[in-house]
Amino acid sequence: MKFVNNINYYINNNLGVVTMVLFTPKSKNNEKKVVESTSELNNKNILEIISNDSDWKARLFVVEKTHDESILSIIAKGDNDRDVRIAAVKKLTDKSVLKDIAKSDSDWKVRLDAVKKINDKKILVDIAENNSDWKVRRAAVKKINDEEILVDIAKNNTDSKVQCVAVKKIRDENTLINIAKNHHDIDVRMVATGKLNDADVLEYIAKNDSDPGVRLVAIDGITDEDVLTTIAKNDDDWKVRLSLVEYLTDDDVLADIAKSDSDSYIRVSVIDKIIDDDVLAYIARNDHDWVVRFAAVEKLTDENILVDIAENDSDHKVRLAASERIADEDIINNIVNKDKTK
Q: Which of 3, 56, 66, 325 fits 81 for a cystine, CB–CB 3.0-4.6 Å?
């Protein structure tokens, strides 16, 4: 076993000095031998440790105590332990070494830490376009501020996650409009749409984008209730129509949707906002889905209509709901007796 194969260190709290202790199991009584303090570490000892010691903590100790760029470079590029390489990378300042590591290290986390220390635009662009891991490419894009480069990445990079990061950093409204309208990737269009302020463009996207998720993002930026009403009545995706219910305030529009929307869940949701007994009565008597009729009955106050429904609805649950809202006990008893004969 090599002399440095077992290396430990301790902190002498009384003296406040970190001391390296090297020992060999073959020494008499396994006696520890204090060789030198960290202030006396020399390159020969350091190189021996990083070359021969199998204990990663010993090599990490060297990284923590040295500021020698050449030694940090050797460790950052050649150590077999990822955490040791990362520790060395974090102390490195040599841009050429950092570039090599960012491009070629076998572990994406090491490459990521190297990218975080690089500011050269050309290197960052190269990494953003060519690195094998999208998280490293994304980190490179985050450090790029050149609008022209960001636009190129947003339009032409092969990874949508990287493109989205570029779009988030783009400021030009016309560029964002172009991406929001024309980009082939749904996520990229979502990000671009979320940054838009142009009401006409948002309306266009909300009405025309092929993806409901993109349309929903556009809707979030629209305040014109007439536009929202048109979408609420005509969008072919129930989730989009449902999202608009909370924004609608016009009683006629709400009544129309409650009566005619093809999705029963949306009709029930709209009923929550309706207070007109005539509209509620129409729905309670005519909707083909008992759940919708039930929801309308739960809001009805006209006792004559409730009696009619309690006596005549085709569904027992709806009849019961209507009966429970009638105050006159004689009427209720009469309805119950009639119901028993059905």
A: 56
